């Protein structure tokens, strides 16, 4: 495909996304119908689509319309590329520019330029203070690819060498002593032997830092209450010597976890909700709760535009319910770790303050907010201790 034909493909896919399809679904449908597209074309079109969703507000302003065409046009202008030579209408190129593709305003309002929904600006400013603008700007770009070195099997230096022998460049990242940032050939990872034999896992660096903040000790009984695909479960397992249990309200989300655990060479047990009281108490319960995902809008940018005040309030109710349900599962003197991939206070510090206010016998031991300025996704973790 020519660069202009890739733009046309992105325009069609974005029109479907704007009509309500998910980006993944629209990309899959386009891929099935476009056998002529090679792997390089597919990756390039995917990048165009996700960049346009991340920067939907500013690209629409720069392109003159919130349409597939407007977003792609705005993306080119944002990158300082003259769209004229690409929008020619020849071959599979988008139709030529017209009066309707009006020139962009010379200066965009701040929240438009930062791709921030208006209603989210006050709570994000409250949470981020002086970091508000830099964080929102960082969320306009693609996230780095990070790996977690399976320290039970290989050292960080050994993993870097193993990846290098397969043409993948990676370097240590400061957020966690097991984190690597991939600097070249990230797209080769999932077919590499280093990954397939369980020496490394794909996991955001801040997600790894959250696990490193947990007070894990050998011999403990540990429950990952919202295990999902098990990213944090496996990272905890790497600490070694734990009796590890995984649970999720939607057990199908854990369907790949046994195979991933086997590949990583770790043992864990999946628990149904009804079995939890029988296996309690636990020395540590991690609740990596469902949240707005405001810290991971680089990876899942549709969520930024889909979030509403009503959905945020609903998520806060779910989070409070989870805290209340898991608290009795923690042994006296044990810990409850609460984590979100959100930067909003309502889901983080305010949620913890409300729990402490209604739950005698608990105290806050530590908490930390990570933002994309630390390198990884935005995350929050609070460690609570139950009185002995
Ligand atoms: C943020 S994801 C977990 C991600 C996972 N810990 C990881 O690191 O890969 C949140 C998970 O919570 C689960 N969940 C939602 N409501 C829940 C509830 N009431 N109780 C337990 N899990 C719940 C969801 O199914 C989802 O898998």
UniProtKB/TrEMBL annotation:
Residues 135-388 form the SAM-dependent MTase RsmB/NOP-type domain. The keyword Lipid metabolism does not apply. Transmembrane segments: none annotated. S-adenosyl-L-methionine binds at residues 248, 288. Keywords: Methyltransferase, RNA-binding, S-adenosyl-L-methionine, Transferase. The active site is at residue 341. It comes from the Bacteria. One of its GO terms (molecular function) is RNA binding. The keyword S-adenosyl-L-methionine applies. One of its GO terms (biological process) is RNA methylation. Signal peptide: none annotated. It holds the Pfam family RsmF-B_ferredox. CDD domains: AdoMet_MTases. Belongs to the class I-like SAM-binding methyltransferase superfamily. RsmB/NOP family. PANTHER family: NOP2 YEAST -RELATED NOL1/NOP2/FMU SUN DOMAIN-CONTAINING, RIBOSOMAL RNA SMALL SUBUNIT METHYLTRANSFERASE B-RELATED. This is Fmu (Sun) domain protein. It comes from Rhodobacter ferrooxidans.
């Amino acid at each position: 495909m020519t660069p202009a034909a890739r733009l046309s493909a992105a325009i069609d896919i974005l029109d479907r996304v704007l009509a309500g399809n998910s980006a993944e679904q629209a990309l899959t449908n386009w891929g099935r119908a476009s056998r002529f597209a090679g792997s390089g074309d597919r990756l390039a079109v995917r990048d165009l689509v996700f960049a346009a969703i991340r920067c939907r507000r500013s690209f629409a302003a720069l392109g003159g319309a919130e349409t597939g065409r407007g977003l792609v046009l705005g993306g080119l202008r944002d990158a300082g590329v003259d769209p004229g030579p690409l929008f020619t209408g020849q071959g599979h190129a988008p139709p030529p520019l017209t009066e309707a593709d009006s020139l962009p305003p010379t200066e965009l309002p701040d929240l438009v330029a930062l791709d921030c929904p208006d209603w989210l600006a006050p709570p994000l400013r409250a949470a981020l203070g002086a970091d508000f603008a830099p964080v929102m700007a960082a969320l306009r770009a693609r996230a780095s690819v990070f790996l977690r070195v399976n320290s039970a099997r290989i050292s960080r230096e050994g993993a870097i060498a193993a990846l290098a022998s397969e043409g993948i460049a990676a370097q240590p990242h400061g957020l966690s002593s097991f984190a690597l940032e991939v600097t070249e050939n990230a797209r080769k990872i999932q077919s590499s032997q280093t990954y397939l034999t369980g020496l490394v896992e794909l996991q955001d660096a801040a997600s790894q830092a959250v696990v490193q903040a947990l007070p894990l000790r050998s011999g403990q009984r540990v429950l990952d209450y919202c295990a999902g695909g098990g990213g944090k479960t496996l990272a905890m397992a790497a600490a070694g010597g734990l009796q590890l249990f995984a649970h999720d309200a939607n057990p199908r989300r854990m369907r790949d976890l046994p195979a991933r655990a086997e590949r990583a060479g770790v043992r864990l047990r999946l628990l149904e909700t009804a079995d939890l009281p029988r296996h309690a108490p636990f020395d540590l319960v991690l609740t990596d709760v469902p949240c707005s995902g405001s810290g991971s809008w680089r990876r899942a940018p549709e969520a930024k535009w889909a979030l509403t005040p009503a959905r945020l309030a609903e998520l806060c109710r779910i989070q409070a319910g989870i805290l209340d349900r898991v608290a009795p599962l923690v042994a006296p003197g044990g810990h409850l770790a609460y984590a979100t991939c959100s930067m909003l206070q309502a889901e983080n510090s305010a949620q913890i303050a409300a729990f402490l206010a209604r739950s005698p016998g608990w105290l806050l031991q530590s908490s930390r907010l990570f933002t994309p300025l630390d390198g990884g996704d935005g995350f929050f973790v609070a460690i609570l201790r139950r009185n002995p």
